[in-house]
């Protein structure tokens, strides 16, 4: 059975975004080549990406723009993965959305994710958004958590955890820019 893997950046004080959705803090520590390779490795281990409706337009616009208009961008390899990988957007309000290799799922979240896990193929990756990820967490649908801990505290913001969740540490990898990739399993 395929696993559902969450990759998400988080602050030291447990937030995935500021109160108004701010995310500039994710880039303040600067790039790290080893960390970027880990992100690509994780993406390559999956053949399906799950997304929430709210973050999808920005996600699609960013990665398709890098592929189409920024051939010298150091993120080109990751951009190709993001554009070429099957993406499923979960929405209660929309039945179609623009984007390459993109489909919209309007059914019950738990039922749909459990069915996807039973399909043949590589694992499944989820990046967000925060409300969507919270729903996956609260329904115990995530098998592995890849938390990229940033060396910053923002004081207040958006959390993906709405209740107590006990996880088992599998590994942690520090990077030169101060970020730590922490892998937890359920």
Q: Strand-and-helix sequence, N→C?
A: EHEHHEEHEHEEE
Unreliable parts: none
Q: Strand pairing plus helix content: what structural class?
A: alpha/beta
Largest sheet: 8 strands, mixed
In percent terms, what proportion of residues is strand? 25-35%
Distance between the termini: 15 Å
CATH topology (fold) name of the domain at 4-10 and 32-144: Dihydrofolate Reductase, subunit A
Considering the protein shown, what is the CATH homologous superfamily of the domain at 4-10 and 32-144?
Dihydrofolate Reductase, subunit A
Q: At the first level of CATH, what is the class of the domain at 4-10 and 32-144? A: Alpha Beta
Helical run tally = 5
Q: Could you report the average pLDDT, rounded to the nearest whole number?
A: 96
Radius of gyration: 16 Å
Q: Name the overall outline.
A: globular
**Widest sheet, order of strands:** 4-3-2-5-1-6-8-7
CATH 2nd-level architecture of the domain at 4-10 and 32-144: 3-Layer(aba) Sandwich
Helix content: 25-40%
Q: What is the total tally of β strands?
A: 8
Give structural notes.
The chain contains five helices and eight strands, in the order βαβααββαβαβββ. The protein is an alpha/beta fold. The protein has an eight-stranded mixed β-sheet. Helix 1 runs parallel beside helix 3 and helix 2 crosses helix 3. The chain starts with a strand and ends with a strand.
Short description:
Helix content is 29%, strand content 26%. The chain has helices at 33-44, 56-69, 76-84, 109-118, 130-138, and strands spanning 4-10, 46-52, 86-90, 102-105, 123-128, 144-149, 168-174, 180-185.
């Amino acid at each position: 059975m395929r696993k559902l893997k969450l990759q998400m950046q988080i602050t030291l004080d447990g937030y995935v975004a500021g109160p108004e959705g701010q995310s500039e803090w994710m880039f303040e520590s600067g790039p790290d080549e080893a960390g970027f390779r880990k992100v690509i490795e994780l993406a390559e281990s999956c053949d399906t990406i799950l997304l929430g409706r709210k973050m999808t337009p920005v996600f699609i616009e960013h990665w398709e723009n890098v592929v189409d208009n920024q051939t010298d961008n150091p993120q080109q390899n990751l951009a190709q993965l993001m554009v070429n990988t099957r993406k499923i957007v979960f929405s209660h309000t929309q039945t179609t959305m623009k984007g390459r290799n993109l489909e919209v799922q309007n059914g019950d979240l738990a039922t749909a994710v459990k069915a996807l896990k039973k399909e043949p193929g590589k694992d499944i990756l989820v990046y967000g958004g925060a409300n969507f990820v919270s729903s996956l967490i609260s329904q115990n649908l995530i098998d592995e958590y890849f938390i990229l801990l940033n060396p910053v505290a923002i004081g207040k913001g958006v959390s993906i955890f709405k209740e107590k969740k006990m996880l088992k540490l599998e590994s942690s990898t520090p990077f030169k820019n101060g970020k730590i990739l922490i892998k937890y399993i359920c």
